[in-house]
């Protein structure tokens, strides 16, 4: 157990390095590309990504996740999942190549056909290293994953900027995706070789299928509940609105990917090993959510308040329509940063079927809110409806997931209360400072952002220290260890 705990802690550190470094690079690249590529061109790739990102779920049909969850795996299991990945990767590449005209017709944008066909090999490329990457996580060798991902991100990002500078527009983003996939696959095959063979075992397949199919089903429903908005915006509002929305959504997802996502990736294999010790899982879960909230709640609250200077500094004046979208989505992002750990509980305990059912219901609620929102108020209406649906369904989500490990909704509210009230105090301080000091001074956006960000951080940590919030000591211990 001590070795397992050590590997888990090390894994979290390397995951933070991976996610933090990757997101910093991607953010910088996004800020550069936002000045070289228009929202319309970003939206064009977003139209294709709605379909290609969904199809990636079926490259391994949840079998890689099943390998991580299974306590003991054999060479037959590895070879069987490799066969499944290759089959689905090849099929998806062929399907997207020949059905590209349908995607172009759906959006009534002929140029999408060639772009979709150019991106179609990404499925086969990803399939080749799917098992290698899954077993890297199973063994909690997050260091190797970090080095590979960061190397691929740097090379693909430099390529994208050079292409955008030479006026390649949306092709810059598409080529970045392909280069990223190729480098990741090559490096995983070299540095974590498994000597897979195209050998299929029916017994292994059936043993992994039940769990994997539930994971794939959950991922499918969850994907469309999160991306039906992109589909509707691209279809009915056009590329520019889609480009604005996808970038605002990406900013909202920062805490989920950089904090919750990092912890989730490491907690899943860790919880899978501890799946018979519910008490230990409950303790770790409560500490993890407490720490996540301590970081994400003030971050997203501050972003909601400082959306205008942030957009002007990071994206430029061509993206002003993003300001109200970011303000609303940021608050939703705070809630979702905690909810994202629920899936780890279901999968680690072998209850992926519950996650599937919950996600199915949630997808209906979200889809309904998207349709109503876009009909009533176009882009801003959709964003408001999405946020309302997210806030209303948060409590039922907590209840169902918490029930699996003996955590009530009241326990969860108490667990998050310090972060909530400290963030509220910080928000009040920022509003006062913004209205009475920074606003009348009419400073440049960059100075507004710097002054208010630093002030907000000081307000938050001062309030936390003053009221003796245990999260401060917890954060110190975690980062020290």
TrEMBL record:
Main location: membrane
Protein's cellular compartments: Cell membrane
Protein's UniProt keywords contain Transmembrane helix: yes
Membrane-topology annotation of the record: Multi-pass membrane protein
Bilayer-spanning residue ranges: 12-33, 45-68, 80-100, 112-132, 144-165, 171-190, 291-315, 321-342, 354-376, 382-400, 420-440, 446-467
Keywords for this protein: Cell membrane, Membrane, Transmembrane, Transmembrane helix
Superkingdom of source: Bacteria
PANTHER family: LIPOPOLYSACCHARIDE BIOSYNTHESIS PROTEIN WZXC, PST FAMILY PREDICTED COLANIC ACID TRANSPORTER
Protein family according to the UniProt entry: Belongs to the polysaccharide synthase family.
Record's protein name: Lipopolysaccharide biosynthesis protein
Organism: Gramella jeungdoensis
Lineage: Bacteria, Pseudomonadati, Bacteroidota, Flavobacteriia, Flavobacteriales
């Amino acid at each position: 157990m001590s070795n397992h705990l050590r590997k888990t802690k090390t894994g979290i550190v390397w995951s933070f390095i991976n996610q933090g470094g990757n997101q910093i690079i991607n953010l910088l690249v996004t800020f550069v590309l936002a000045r070289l590529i228009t929202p319309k061109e970003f939206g064009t790739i977003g139209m294709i990504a709605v379909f290609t990102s969904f199809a990636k779920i079926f490259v391994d049909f949840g079998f890689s996740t099943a390998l991580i969850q299974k306590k003991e795996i054999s060479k037959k299991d590895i070879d069987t999942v490799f066969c499944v990945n290759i089959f689905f990767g090849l099929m998806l590449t062929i399907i997207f190549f020949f059905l590209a005209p349908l995607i172009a017709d759906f959006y009534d944008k002929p140029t999408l056909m060639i772009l979709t066909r150019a991106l179609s090999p990404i499925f086969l490329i990803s399939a080749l290293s799917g098992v290698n990457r899954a077993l890297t996580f199973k063994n909690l060798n997050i260091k190797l994953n970090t080095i590979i991902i960061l190397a691929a991100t740097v090379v693909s990002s430099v390529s994208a900027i050079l292409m955008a500078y030479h006026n390649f527009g949306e092709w810059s983003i598409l080529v970045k995706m392909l280069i990223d996939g190729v480098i990741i696959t090559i490096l995983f095959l070299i540095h974590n070789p498994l000597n897979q063979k195209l050998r299929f075992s029916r017994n292994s397949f059936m043993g992994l299928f039940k769990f994997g199919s539930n994971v794939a089903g959950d991922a499918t429903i969850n994907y469309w509940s999160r991306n039906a908005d992109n589909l509707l915006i691209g279809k009915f509002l056009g590329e520019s609105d889609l480009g604005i929305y996808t970038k605002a959504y990406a900013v909202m997802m920062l805490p989920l990917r950089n904090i919750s996502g990092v912890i989730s990736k490491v907690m899943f294999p860790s919880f899978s090993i501890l799946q018979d010790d519910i008490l230990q899982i409950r303790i770790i879960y409560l500490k993890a959510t407490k720490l996540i909230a301590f970081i994400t709640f003030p971050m997203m609250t501050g972003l909601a308040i400082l959306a205008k200077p942030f957009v002007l500094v990071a994206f430029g004046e061509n993206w002003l329509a993003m300001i109200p979208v970011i303000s609303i989505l940021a608050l939703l992002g705070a809630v979702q940063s905690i909810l994202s750990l629920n899936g780890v509980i279901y999968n680690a305990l072998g209850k992926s079927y519950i996650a599937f059912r919950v996600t199915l219901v949630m997808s209906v609620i979200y889809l309904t809110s998207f349709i109503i929102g876009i009909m009533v108020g176009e882009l801003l209406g959709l964003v408001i409806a999405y946020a309302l649906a997210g806030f209303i369904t948060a409590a039922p989500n907590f209840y169902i997931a918490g029930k699996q490990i003996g955590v009530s909704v009241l326990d969860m509210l108490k667990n998050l209360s310090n972060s909530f009230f400290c963030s509220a105090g910080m928000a009040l301080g920022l509003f006062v400072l913004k209205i009475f000091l920074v606003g009348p001074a009419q400073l440049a956006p960059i100075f507004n952002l710097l002054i208010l960000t630093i002030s907000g951080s000081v307000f938050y940590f001062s309030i936390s220290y003053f009221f003796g919030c245990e999260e401060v000591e917890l954060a110190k211990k975690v980062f020290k260890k």
